[in-house]
Design goal:
The protein has two domains: 60 residues, 3-Layer(aba) Sandwich (Glutaredoxin), CATH 3.40.30.10; 54 residues, no CATH class. The chain is of the alpha+beta class and 119 residues long. The relative contact order is 0.25. Helix content is 34%, strand content 14%. It has a four-stranded mixed beta sheet with strand order 2-1-3-4, with helices on both faces.
Length: 119
Amino acid sequence: MSITIYHNPRCSKSRKTLELLIDAGITPTIVEYLNTPPDAATTLQLASLLGVAVADLLRRGEAEFKEATDLPDLADDGALAAWLEAHPKVIERPIVVDAGGNRAVIGRPPEKVLELTGR
């Protein structure tokens, strides 16, 4: 099983999701997305794996989202994915990807990650 977590170590939900993965015996690849933001193509792939529009990956409560003056049309997945590359703080977290199973979940609640682990 090849698991990747797009992780923010300052987020309690992200930390709990990582803990659940480790408790399940999984050593995920950890991408601290604030330091290494996913590029637009990766964000589009994540949205596809999640079965959602890119707009559904937005943390709309974040000040950076609310105060954005350069926000593209929320219906334009490509433009929004490129915008998120420059504004990774606005990306929903944590996103956990099972590359082998071609699926992903958002760890909210953290227990949602158990769908990927089979537990």
